[in-house]
Amino acid sequence: MSDFLPTGIQLSYIVAVSFFFFGLKKLGSPATARQGNLWASIGMFIAIVATLLERQVLNYQMIFVAIAIGSVIGAIAAYKVEMTAMPQMVGLFNGLGGAASAMVAVGEFWRYLAAADSPPLPTTITAVLGVLIGGVTFTGSMVAFAKLQGIMSGSPILFPLQQIVNALLLGGFLVGSVYLCFLPFNVPVFLGLVGISLVLGVLFVIPIGGGDMPVVISLLNSLSGLAASAAGFVVMNNLLIIAGALVGASGIILTIIMCKAMNRSLTNVLFAGFGSGDGGTAAAGDGAKVDKNVRSIDPEEGAMMLGYARSVVIVPGYGMAVAQAQHSVKELVDQLEGLGVEVKYAIHPVAGRMPGHMNVLLAEANVPYPQLYDMDDVNPTFNQTDVALVIGANDVVNPAAREDRNSPIYGMPILEVDKAKHTIVIKRSLSTGFAGVDNGLFYQDKTMMLFGSAKDMVAQLVSQVKQL
């Protein structure tokens, strides 16, 4: 079909794809991510305009009204959403993308049925794939959103014979798909496939714990791209196929990176039911830790340790994000640099609840990009670091990942803050992280616990440092 497209449309598609490629390239670095987003947006604008000119559109007014309504909703949501809730918003985006792709597949298949025209076999196959991937992406993303938002428990939800039920549903979907390839006019079977895909999405995500949400978000993002690509095959739009493939490929690459950062396979993430998501609630000083001792300090002591250090590495975690403490952290760093202290930020790949979550939060506080160091670059420097300041991080600094072969997180690459000369941990309590594993770092002799809200404690540190 593409051979009959006007030359201008074809050239526009090539230009749009080029913008997508350049945008993805720039999105690979925090310093150029904003430009990459702009480039990709321009490419999408060109793609939409070209497609509307190429296709026979029945009602332009309805399309423009839908675009206007969607743009207003999206702009308001993006403006009002807090940075800590960005993972939930990304989950919603993934889900809506999957739903849109599934509806395109359903609509195209229904168009053939309404005309009493048997759809070609390739159309039937791609429509079924679009329904499966889009449906799983939609309901799976909604469950991920509910877990992240606290609407439902972040703990893995398991029930007897769960994997067998999943296998039976998937088998039923395959049988129904084969049936439709030969008898496509059976509407109940087609609607049954739609229902199965939606149920599979729910069952796909509920057994995954909150600690694995960064991986789930990445994987669902990849699935939303694959759903879009399948929709492109259904409506025979080459640009949609390419755009969906780009999203699918980048999402699965990011998923693999996240799995490596956790030293776990994708199958283990999806089927092990690992990560409680809620963590423990043992407060400092309660009876849960009677066999271990911790050394606690107050903000004045912490300020003296930081202010008289030569080098400080700050490790932000989700606790910092929840407390919205990034601006206070930036103020603390400015004060320390004014005293001649060298300060770096150490960013773990899975810190927070979404890939790049910490980078976005710190960028919001105008933290210079050169101060952000990834795990591989910063770990060799901890031996020469005077003070490591951990703010709300837990699993990503747990020495058990390196030392305890019986620990469920053993082998996961961590930020080796325990190798610094001194470590200050700001945390509300001694509760476990998403993995539900006690952190031996809290009980080491050179670790000082500063108990309290990240925002309050950092603000008090700033006040005390100013007096030095």
Rg (C-alpha, Å): 25 Å
Order of helices and strands: HHHHHHHHHHEHEHHEHEHEHEEH
Shape, per Cα inertia axes: elongated
Low-confidence stretches: 275-290
Q: What level of helicity do the residues show?
A: 55-70%
Quote the beta fraction: 5-15%
Question: What is the number of helices?
Answer: 17
Taking the sheet with the most strands, its summary is: 7 strands, parallel
Mean pLDDT: 84
Structure class:
alpha/beta
Strand order in space, largest sheet: 1-7-6-5-2-3-4
The end-to-end distance, rounded to whole angstroms, is 73 Å
By DSSP, the count of extended strands is 7
Explain this structure to me?
- This protein is of the alpha/beta class.
- It has 17 helices and 7 strands.
- It is 58% helix and 7% strand.
- It has a 7-stranded parallel beta sheet.
- The longest helix has 29 residues, at 86-114.
- The relative contact order is 0.10.
Task: Please sum up the structure shown.
By secondary structure, the chain is α/β, with parallel strands linked by helices.
Protein traits:
7% strand; alpha/beta; 17 helices; seven-stranded parallel beta sheet; 468 residues
SSE topology sketch:
Elements: H1 7-26, H2 33-54, H3 60-80, H4 86-114, H5 121-149, H6 162-182, H7 187-205, H8 213-235, H9 238-262, H10 266-271, E1 295-296, H11 299-307, E2 311-316, H12 318-323, H13 326-338, E3 342-347, H14 357-364, E4 372-374, H15 375-378, E5 387-391, H16 400-403, E6 422-427, E7 447-451, H17 454-466
Parallel strand pairs: 1-7, 2-3, 2-5, 3-4, 5-6, 6-7
Helix pairs in contact: 1-2, 1-9, 4-5, 4-8, 5-6, 5-7, 5-8, 6-7, 8-9, 11-17, 13-17
